[in-house]
Predict the 3D structure of the following.
Amino acid sequence: MTTNAKKITARQMANAEIVNEHTGEKWVYSDIVKDHFFNPRNLLLEDPKEGEFDAVGMVGSPACGDVMKIWIKVDRTSDTIRDLKWQTFGCGSAIASTSMFSVMCTEDGGMVLTDALKIKPQHVMERLAGLPNRKIHCSVLADKAFRKAVNEYFRASAQHERVLVEHARVIDARLNITDKDIEEAVLEGAQTLEDVQQKLKVGVGDPESIPEIEQLIRFYHEKYYG
Ligand code: FES
């Protein structure tokens, strides 16, 4: 059987603009993103051996159901990251941003843990020369899994005073919706009160909570989209 369809090479795919067929929106990936997608750094292909790492953190994204796992090895004396490896079922943006995150944590002899904890998704995106807005939640997976791994490390090494505590605060008591739910909605692309209410119905029966909801939307938007 003959076909006129051309074979698309990996390089052509890497150079392609991704266009949303419904909205016409172009998702252009930088050369750095493509490089980290096609040649991911510090990716772990097989599960590690017992004792190879000090801790592991795992998260799943409510936006897409994808899973991210990060393993870390820490030099206790210098408090630096000696090794960081990862696995994910996430998309190309998750692969590229986690690859870059792993490079940032381990380059130049490894970052001090307290500095690595200050890496924000925007910093990773700057190093990647940008990501499409709708893909920013993919870059947050590495940050979240890393924080879990660091907490496991702190607990395992009896540094309990350093454990990072991230409390959820109830914003709408009737629906039991917290600031974390609003954060996830923003990460899934909600930009306005209307967008967030479409997803969560938050504040619909509790108008007094609206100013706080709007403040949180601005805060998380600034945090993740800069
Ligand atoms: S990790 Fe799920 S869409 Fe990118």
